[in-house]
Specification:
Largest interface: A-B, 86 and 46 residues
Radius of gyration of chain A: 22 Å
Largest sheet of chain B: none
Strand order of the largest sheet of chain A: 3-6-7-8-1-10-15
Order of helices and strands of chain B: HHH
Largest sheet of chain A: 7 strands, antiparallel
Radius of gyration of chain B: 23 Å
Number of strands of chain B: 0
Strand content of chain B: under 5%
Oligomer: heterodimer
Shape of chain A: globular
Strand content of chain A: 15-25%
Shape of chain B: flat
Distance between the termini of chain A: 37 Å
Chain lengths: ~500, ~60
């Protein structure tokens, strides 16, 4: 029987600025940041030849991926720089199995792939600390604190960058079935997964207030292989980083960067359970008439009625409760992780139904709402005051002395999911039970010998190849390690 | 070669939410810190977001 997705991962592109420069150069600043990363790692050896981002899950290949005219112009300028595209990337693979590099002018931390939700979230939070440490060292070099990093998704004037959650799913699930059953869930999960945003961007209806989601203004279609324009509810890039005969990698780009680890856990955990439901043909039956428009409408009003193709209307909460009900039937007592997700999903939807302020210790948009309202009251400000957008940006600042979420953490105002020691461990140690463990240990013990490295394996300078393409499930990882334990002297 | 079996030797429990029963508990302190966070908010440059320009990512 098809089970839950066996692997999950989160990619986070960070915003970066050097405040002392009149025109901060994100390419240069991202490079300098990556170069200053002190974490033990393999540098500049990413195997780009194993990337294939032009295949579409709908069965065709695109010649190129699109970007807007402004970015075309920027790229033309980039080609005049004194370093190559690959030098600009500054790829690092870390001992915790993660990739840390410069992607489209944003420092990106791609978590190691995990088979356990809490290991994944711990490694995502570890990424924040790795990025923050590199920032601290960069600022030491500069003798100032001008370089600032933000775990968010927008600059409030129309430039968005992504936080992608990824799930390895069985290829045998028909893609059309997957889309039909998943879209209503994805459109509505912003009720707890939204990181909140002050104001609006793009050509839509003007909005003054706090939206649920940072990315909702940027979702333009249901399906697309694109990521920089025409951003979709479901990205159709067919690049499983595993056996394409057995798996697809569902690459979701509509989500927000959560500062709350609890919100990250709920977002990824619920999505994992829903994908498991769909695999078993047990998803609830909803078909929204206009899901793309609904993404933005819900973000601006969580109670807005949503039209279904059957002529009836439904609310976001009703959709989420229906998915929860099905998940309770299938996944209750499956394991401890499933029970945590089901309990917290239920508690969060109930709290939202009764009083959204009950979420103000753990769901980003609700934390913001309470915080900003207090500030607006004390300073006599309205939602359209530019100060609010500045505060909204600063919520996501990783600087412990400036970031608003960091301040709330320090004061015990928000729920902490992990002990500090668990995050410290995730900064250096790969997740147990996934192939990332093998990758991380090879980086730790054989880093100088690695010629090229990728999610699916690595090649050593002596010609040895470790092919991990089919080492996916935890029993496959254990078998691989036992079969190879004489060869690799991991200490 | 049990000594070299890293999976067994270094196996550890996956991180778990820091709670003993049920889900995570809400933080107990609610009021005392709010003044400090409001002071931190007051230090934010009202024009900060205007100066924050990024390039489109994915």
């Amino acid at each position: 029987m098809i089970d839950l997705p066996p692997l999950m991962g989160i990619e986070t592109e960070y915003g970066i600025i050097r405040e002392s420069e009149k025109k901060s150069d994100p390419v240069e600043e991202s490079m300098q940041l990556l170069k200053r990363c002190s974490a033990p790692s393999v540098f500049g050896a990413w195997a780009y030849g194993r990337e294939n981002s032009h295949l579409d899950m709908r069965g065709f290949r695109v010649g190129s991926l699109a970007q807007d005219e402004e970015e075309d112009a920027f790229c033309a300028e980039d080609r005049k720089r004194s370093y190559s595209y690959l030098e600009m990337k500054c790829d690092r693979v870390l001992t915790n199995g993660a990739r840390f590099y410069n992607d489209h002018t944003h420092p990106e931390y791609s978590s190691p792939e995990c088979n356990d939700l809490f290991q994944l979230v711990a490694h995502d939070v570890a990424g924040e600390h790795i990025v923050a440490r590199a920032t601290q060292l960069r600022n030491q070099d500069l003798g100032e604190s001008s370089v600032q990093l933000f775990k968010n998704n927008t600059d409030y004037i129309g430039h968005s960058y992504g936080t992608h959650d990824n799930y390895l799913i069985a290829r045998e699930i028909p893609f059309d079935d997957l889309v039909q059953a998943l879209v209503p869930f994805l459109v509505t999960r912003q009720l707890y997964a939204g990181a909140g945003k002050v104001g609006y961007e793009g050509d839509g209806e003007p909005f003054h207030g706090l939206q649920l989601s940072q990315r909702s203004d940027f979702v333009e279609t249901v399906l697309s292989i694109e990521t920089m324009t025409q951003r979709p509810i479901i990205n159709t890039r067919d690049e499983p980083h595993a056996s394409s005969k057995d798996y697809r990698r569902l690459h979701l780009i509509l989500g927000d960067a959560n500062m709350s680890a609890y919100a990250t856990a709920l977002k990824v955990g619920t999505t994992r359970l829903v994908l498991g439901l769909i695999a078993r043909g047990a998803g609830p039956d909803f078909e929204l008439e206009n899901p793309v428009a609904d993404v933005a409408r819900i973000s601006r009003d969580l109670n807005t009625p949503l039209k279904q193709t059957n002529g009836k209307t439904v609310t976001s909460l009703e959709i989420q409760f229906a998915y929860l009900e099905q998940a309770q039937k299938v996944w209750r007592d499956h394991n401890e992780e499933c029970n945590w997700i089901l309990n917290e999903w239920s508690r969060t939807l109930s709290d939202l139904q009764q009083d959204p302020e009950k979420l103000s210790d753990r769901i980003d948009w609700a934390i913001k709402q309470k915080l900003y309202r207090q500030f607006m009251e004390s300073e006599n400000l309205g939602w359209d005051d530019p100060w609010l957008q500045s505060l909204d940006l600063e919520y996501h600042n990783l600087d412990p002395e400036r970031g608003l979420y960091r301040g709330l953490e320090q004061e015990g105002q928000v729920l902490e999911l992990f002990k500090g020691s668990e995050i410290e461990s995730a900064i250096e140690t790969p997740p147990v039970g996934s192939r990332a463990w093998i990758r991380g240990k090879m980086v730790e013990h054989y880093g100088d010998d690695i010629q090229s490295i990728h999610w699916t394996g690595l090649k050593l300078k002596n010609g040895d190849v470790l092919d991990l393409t089919s080492v996916i499930k935890s029993d496959e990882v254990e078998t691989w390690i036992n079969d190879n334990k004489e060869k690799w002297q991991w200490k | 070669m049990e000594m070299n079996d890293p999976l067994r030797r270094e196996k550890r429990d996956a991180p778990k939410p820091d709670s003993s029963e049920g889900g995570p508990k809400a933080p107990e302190s609610v009021k005392p810190g709010r003044d400090n966070i409001l002071k931190r908010m007051k230090r934010v440059d009202p024009k900060q977001s205007e100066n924050y320009k990024q390039r489109t990512g994915q």
